[in-house]
Amino acid sequence: MVTLVVATTTDPASINPAKELLAMPGWQPGPTLDQRVRSFINGDVRVLEHDKGIVEEDDLDQRWEMCTGQHVDEVIFLSKHTAVSNRPALTIHPIGVPHLKEGDVPPQGGRPGWAAPPNPRMGPWMILLNKIAESHNLIPEFEITFEATHHGPVTTKPTMFIEIGSTEEYWKRQDAAQVVALVSFTLLVAALLLVWEGLGLGGGPPVGNWSSTSANNKVLLGIGGGHYVPRHTDVIKKDGCWVGQLLSGYSLPMEDPGPTKGKVSAQDIAGTWKHSIRAAYDATKAGFPGGDILAHLDQKSFKGWQKNAIIEFLGAQNIKIGKPGDFS
Q1: What is the DSSP letter of 101?
Q2: pLDDT tens across 43-89, in order?
Q3: What are the beta bridge partners of residue 296?
Q4: Averaged confidence pLDDT in the chain
Q5: For residue 32, how many C-alpha atoms fall within 13 Å in the half-sphere facing its CB?
Q6: Which of 113, 133, 159, 169 could form a disulfide with 138 if both were Cys (CB 3.0 to 4.6 A apart)?
Q7: Measured between alpha carbons, how far is 62 from 48 in angstroms, rounded to an integer?
Q8: 3-class secondary-structure state, position 312
Q9: 3-class DSSP state for residue 322?
Q10: Coil, strand, or helix at residue 193?
């Protein structure tokens, strides 16, 4: 059972953290996948390096299993982060394009209607990322934040992206690259000593391994809000709950029913929002088997008719709704 960490040579924010990681002791060359994806091995961790865009190599998890016979537990991608604001950031997010319908062409990879199982490490690693960033004096210059679910590539195993943003100046920063490399393998830095702790490589317990029998098995399924999902993030950081799919408003296309007499049913509101919620919920269940999955609504981001329709649909789908205090 192995962890795949994926980087591309076409992106300095991807390959720089990978180089930092591979400079650490213990790595050996591994097999080449499909004659174009190079690999490096250290314990149960596999770094995959390719020369295409980070969202362009689909099914790396399944392809690795077919090539090596090794079961893939999780996939972690290293990537640049771009934003209109150009604000510098270190981000973590799940992936998928569940709001797209068949026939749509995803602008950044993936498959219409699909969402990958979220990687359970996202919540614990966000906490670790904050600690490492503080130790490297990157706060407050860099913002440490989640992003909403978006883009590909297609995977079937629990997946997350770790990104450096938001301009080429920051993608090439070696100090930021080192932080992302450390978080990617959940390494801790203390007095220049790198401790292989996060994935249990240093002999201690790994950080962020999912167990349905843990003291808190609440999993937040975020619904609504902007791209940086601030209200969901507040709950996650406060209560330390697990993080599932995070659907922003743009992943919930809902057609305005216009003026009506009486109550509008969820079934009367067109758009792919219902499929998007269902796909995100099913993906979260797959990532957290046995977990107590609660939908958390950013209620202020919705109009009244939208909120009512979503609540009605969640009830019909037997998806529980959690208030901020329900996740501790």
Answers
A1: P
A2: 999 999 999 999 999 999 999 999 999 999 999 998 987 776 677 77
A3: 222
A4: 86
A5: 5
A6: 133
A7: 13
A8: helix
A9: coil
A10: strand
Q: What percent of the chain is modeled with pLDDT above 70?
A: 86
Residue 317 in tokens: 């789908």
Distance, in Å, from the CA atom of 13 to the CA atom of 7, rounded to the nearest integer, reads: 9
Cβ 159 vs Cβ 119: under 8 Å: yes
What is the torsional sign of CA 281, 278, 228, 182? Answer: positive
Higher pLDDT, 177 or 31: 31
Cα–Cα distances in Å, from 157 out to 72, 115, 119? Answer: 7, 10, 8
| pTM, full prediction | 0.90
CB 171 within 8 Å of CB 12: yes
Which tokens belong to 50? 């390719």
Helix boundaries (H) for 73-161: 122-135
pLDDT class of 189 with cuts at 50, 70, 90: very low
Q: How far, in Å, CA of 100 to CA of 97, rounded?
A: 6
pLDDT in tens, 194-237: 224 566 655 666 778 898 888 889 999 999 999 999 999 999 98
Our measurement of the distance from residue 35's CA atom to the centroid of its chain's CA atoms, rounded to an integer in Å, reads: 28
Please choose, from the candidates 119, 93, 91, 325, the residue with its C-alpha nearest in 3D space to the C-alpha of residue 218.
Answer: 325
Q: How far apart are CA 108 and CA 141, in angstroms?
A: 28
> How many angstroms from the chain centroid is the CA of residue 121?
9
Q: Which two structure tokens, joined as six digits, stand for 153?
A: 């590539």
| 169: amino acid identity, one letter | E
**Helical H segments across 143-224, by residue range:** 168-171, 174-184
